[in-house]
Amino acid sequence: SPNEHKLNFKKSKEACLSYIQDALLQKQWKRAAEFLTCYVESLEKDYSREHIGPSEMIWRIGTEILWHHSQSSMKEFNCFMEQMKTLGVKRYLKVCLEHVFHLLCNGQIDEAYQNLSLAESWRFGEQTAIQDKEMKLIQAYRGLLDYCSWSKQKNILLEHGEDGFSDLAAEQEMHGYFRKAAVNLKEIIKIPGVWDEFVKCYVDLLEFYGDHNEARQVLNEYAYNSKFPANPNAHVYLYQFLKRQGESKKSLISALKILHDIVPSHELMIDFNTMLQKSKKRKKRRLGLEVIFAALDYAGWKENAKAWSCLAKQVKQIVISEKHLDWIQQEWNSRKDWWPAFHFSRYLAKRNWQENTSLSYEKALVAGILLGKDCKYFKYVSHQGCKAQLKRFRMLKKFVNRHNPVYLRISG
């Protein structure tokens, strides 16, 4: 009966799909390709109108296979993509974008640009309006490629110094790229989203032509507009821009404060701590201590000699002045249960001493103050340092022994 035939057909089609999935998961690209061919052939006999368009599946699976298949060529990939563009109008621009990424990954920049230009001129009734977002992406990537051409041209002219910029035709060509890139990049970054590369390129264009106000506005908007998703990079770009502009310490600190709140383990926390330590204000120095302690809570920082040096320096200052020992105590209270095993074990003392004596010196100072002169880490490192007759380790031992009462006060 026709119903039975339909049911069997549906079953075999589903089985075929699961075989493809299995082959993809096992990275058996040749086997996946064979099953996909069967799937496509079976679809040609299928007259049912399914909820999810098979063309979408063919596009996604086919792309994945061709991307990894050892025997597939760029020519085959291009041919497949052109077929996919005609298969589904609703996905036309998405397919175009994917095609462009593939061309870019293969270094075919001119071909990618041509494809973007073709896609940009695409019109298909109401579909054009529905795919407005994809169209903006197409334009944005074209802007990115125009930026690359501008950058290339700029570097050539800069290499030739004054002579370069006296070549009027070359300079006009560069300005042409600038105009095209700026228009498209400016448009895309108005839409709430994560546009890191586009923002960086647009700001670079603006800075080159001395439009610092516009650059500042763009970066402020990107970092502080609540419609945009929270994005640590937005604050990094703003901070780097303010630094290039020679802005006040106050504005640099406020940019990094937000970054610290979002990503306490960001590499810029060393700059932040250094700035705060130098401040005359007590509140800022207090924050500096909090910042460096928080950064060292993360495993990626365990062997960062610069970070340990920042902490050691600040701890030493506090201990010598005997002011603000409560700051150290507050930071230590929430960490004394787990930092000893995390940072100050005898195993780590041995490893740090072998790999980096400067790191072990800074850590030993901190360990000696926080855990006292009987701490395993401090004892091992100071012993090795004195055995190697290194003067600073002798001084370190004296310092920690002299200030052992501090440890008693901190540990309460």
UniProtKB/TrEMBL annotation:
Regions that span the bilayer: none
Pfam families listed in its UniProt record: TAF1_subA
Superkingdom field: Eukaryota
Any one GO biological process: transcription by RNA polymerase I
Cellular component GO terms, alphabetical: RNA polymerase I transcription regulator complex
Stored InterPro entries: SL1/TIF-IB_Component, TAF1A
Protein name (Swiss-Prot/TrEMBL): TAF1A polymerase
Source organism phylogeny: Eukaryota, Metazoa, Chordata, Craniata, Vertebrata
GN (gene name): Taf1a
